[in-house]
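User: Here's a protein and a ligand (IPE). What would the complex look like?
Assistant: Let me lay out the input and then the predicted complex.
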Amino acid sequence: MKDGQARFGADTGLHVAILMDGNGRWATARGLPRSEGHRAGLAAVRRVVRAAPEIGISTLTLYAFSSHNWERPASEVASLFRLLEEYFCDVTDCHEGGVRIQVIGRRDRIPPSLATAIEYAEQATRPGRRLELRIAIDYSSREAILRAATCPRPGRETSEEEFARRLALATHGGPATPDIDLLIRTGGEQRLSDFMLWEIAYAELLFVPCMWPEFGLADLEAAMDDYLGRERRFGRVPEIAAS
Ligand code: IPE
Ligand code: IPE
Ligand code: MG
């Protein structure tokens, strides 16, 4: 049994979401172009994806490119898309590690070669059962909610479950995913930047100062320790919540 499994249990089955922020500042502080920060950020993604299933995470949602990030210089956007394409073109590690890739967000504005690489990665990793890896690209939570809220039968009441199903259809065309248990944001900012606004209704939030390229296994384990030490009450009093 690996260390992580011993500490956290192999089947905690948590949904963790990460707002991977700080690539640009990490690079600038080292006199490097921002694209090098994104490259180092991708290495951090690989580390975290490898470690996640060992420490009880069964679903991992990563924010890679927001719909607002189109406002960045075209050269930075292009370098990000190139890196993402590189990632999706070689998914051997994911395939061998039982990781199933699902990209969420719009597909109609990204470069066609990236869309093709995404389809390839999703297809190639479909049998994966150890970790559901969801990567948000050209994603806006508000936009997804708006699309889901466009009711086919106006006036008809909707349950939370049905809305969650419609939201999943609006973001990736698949079945609803479990609510997020823990949301981590690196880079020191304490905001949500239009990420998973519906799915984090009862998530525990953790804001960490380290820049995303520096985030490693020890940080992920510390985040899990922090999460497991919290009491989630869901509106109940402590005695009832604990039972
Ligand atoms: C996160 O890092 C990656 C993306 C948003 C694509 P940033 O690029 O936002 O890095 P900072 O926040 O400018 O340091
Ligand atoms: C959020 O980071 C988006 C991603 C991590 C992909 P930003 O750097 O774009 O967010 P703001 O602009 O600081 O809110
Ligand atoms: Mg940022």
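Summary: Residues 21, 187 surround magnesium ion (ligand 3) (CB under 6 Å).
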